[in-house]
Amino acid sequence: MQRNIDWEKLKQHYQTIAAIEMSDLFRQDPKRFDTFSIEAPEIFLDYSKNRITHETLALLLKWAESRSLDQAIDALFSGKILNITEQREALHTALRNHQQNSFLVHNQNIMPAIRRTLAQMRQFVDQIHNHQWLGATQKPITDCVNVGIGGSDLGPRMATFALQPYSRQKVKCHFVSNLDGAQLSETLQPLNPETTLFIVASKTFTTSETLTNARSARKWLLDALQDSNAMARHFIAVSANIPEAKAFGIPEENIFEFWDWVGGRYSLWSAIGLPIALSIGMDRFEALLEGAQAMDRHFQTTAFEKNMPVQMGLLNIWYRNFYEIQTHAIIPYAHHLQFFPSYLQQLFMESNGKTCCVDGVRTDIQTGEIIWGGVGTDGQHAYHQWLHQGTQWVPVDFILPIEAHHDLESHHPLLFANCLAQSQVLLQGKTEQEAYEELLQKDTTSKQAKELAKHKVMEGNRPSNTLLIKKLTPSALGALIALYEHVVFVQGALWNINSFDQWGVELGKTRAKAIVNRLHPANFEEEPPLDSSTAGLMQRFTEHTKNS
Ligand code: F6P
Fold first, then answer.
1. What burial class does residue 155 get, using C-beta atoms within 10 Å of its C-beta: 0-12 exposed, 13-18 middle, 19+ buried?
2. Separation CA 459–CA 21 (nearest Å)
3. Per residue in 231-245, is it b (16+ CB within 10 Å) or e — as a string?
4. Is residue 427 within 8 Å of residue 466, measured between CB atoms?
5. Contact 198, 207 (CB under 8 A)
6. Cα–Cα distance for residue pair 435/456, rounded to 1 Å
7. Cα distance between residue 157 and residue 321, in whole Å
8. pTM: predicted TM-score of the whole model, two decimal places
């Protein structure tokens, strides 16, 4: 149903430009950089190194208009129920627009609750920082361990690390997400229970990984302190399920609420962001919200031609649906954005990895791309070889701060140059003739040069975006995250899928429960019979654990 007449026009246009060389487009239009770049709050986007012409963009925009993208954006900001399978709004944008007086959800104004939680966070962060909040043995809190997974881990983990230069250095934040007990035990090993605070972050408070880790953490604490009242000084919960958090033993006054209308992977703006606030302080946390809000305004009010999330979303669709490219690399040239690619992995892949359209029909076009990547320059010595000479090309987003957070003078210009060199090489590549001539300059014989030149060919014509950020401040990070949230939204809305549910995760959870139960020898033969692969693997596990 996404294939209307405008789609057909795009298909025809694709046939005419599929083989186009970007280098030719640059030669033909000296103003290509000016034309294909956008200035949005905190971020400058150069998208000139893409396989597009003016006509491509005009046709993509026409298709987006025919698919009523403007109405979808209005629906997002006005709090329509976009998550239809769970009957929920997707109101993460309201969390960063906390100055507005009123916003009604089911006839209830949600703004007072948002402001109340922000005030509760501020009071708590100040108390921890000023040592008014002490552990059960009257010692100040020095370490905080966030216990959560998925959206209750990736966002706060990524942002806390990204904003390390803004840390108030009062509390060290640790993150435990994995069910593999190695992570929790190694995290706890150097910590002192008397000075450690746990944040159990779980929207549902039913997630097995989080609860298993939280129970082990509770045991570690209570065994060490031998004081049943210690929970009140060492355990905090952030959840939409207050009864379960209380049943776990966390006093109500230690529970920070968030709401059904905030999706897990969109929740770092809520009290799920508590580790970020504990690290950088509440003023800077609010600057993060402000940066995101500025991007929201840009997305909501800017004409589609100069609308950064819209243009980036359309480019992604162009590559996914017309060139049929399956993956997209995210490569920040910023040590502090180390966790950004894995954060975006959940954002894109849990949101848009869907086959069923909103109307219940199987989609007839490809959706969600695979997101991968890592920081430059490390990647240059790992997977960039594949990017330059692999048989398949993929679009890349380079993210590049102009200003550094350190004063090691020689580093930053070199880092900046490396990033630009990568996008330039992806664009221009190297012909066999160029390689041959270069080799001749290096005293290679003509025969050797001819043979070796073949191996040095880089096809080039490989697209990339470059996102320049002046400096990775809290507000710049807020804008960057919000930008990608909206890119995901644009793609999901145009593909007519629900970007806000995640049913694909559920079946595995149920199966894990059934399998753990049947690992017990007494239950092994239970019905239904197991496939021979699962049964064989389980048998090897039980035999090994029986003998060890
Ligand atoms: O991975 C599925 C998921 O539901 C995510 O969407 C969510 O972020 C994560 O699990 C954690 O859920 P919770 O915060 O409820 O523990």
1. buried
2. 10
3. bebbbbbbbbbeebb
4. no
5. no
6. 6
7. 32
8. 0.97
Task: Write down the H helix ranges in 429-531.
Answer: 432-441, 446-455, 474-495, 506-518
Examine the pLDDT at 153 and tell me if it is beyond 90: yes
Active-site annotation holds for 381: yes
Question: DSSP assignment of 259-301, as one string?
Answer: -TTS-GGG-TTTGGGHHHHHHH-HHHHHHHHHHHHHHHHHHHH
Q: Does the beta carbon of 203 sit less than 6 angstroms from any atom of ligand 1? A: yes
Kind of pairing between the strands at 43-46 and 464-469: antiparallel
325: left (phi over 0), alpha (psi -120 to 50) or beta: beta
> Running DSSP on this structure, what letter comes out for residue 526?
P
d(CA 45, CA 34): 11
Tokens of 181: 């007990």
pLDDT digits (tens, 9 = 90+) for 352-402: 999 999 999 999 999 999 999 999 999 999 999 999 999 999 999 999 999
Nearest ligand 1 atom to the CA of 201 is: 14
Tell how far the Cα of 325 is from the centroid of ligand 1, in angstroms.
Answer: 28
171 SS3 class = coil
47: DSSP letter: -
- Alpha-carbon distance of 45 to 483, in angstroms, equals 11
31 part of the active site: no
The confidence band for 1, taking pLDDT boundaries of 50, 70 and 90, is: low
Strands 370-373 and 143-147: unpaired
Q: How many residues does the chain have?
A: 548
pLDDT of residue 2: 73
Helix (H, G, I), strand (E, B), or coil: what is residue 520? coil
Q: Is 434 a residue of the active site?
A: no
Chain Cα centroid distance, residue 417:
26
**Cα distance between residue 421 and residue 403, in whole Å:** 18
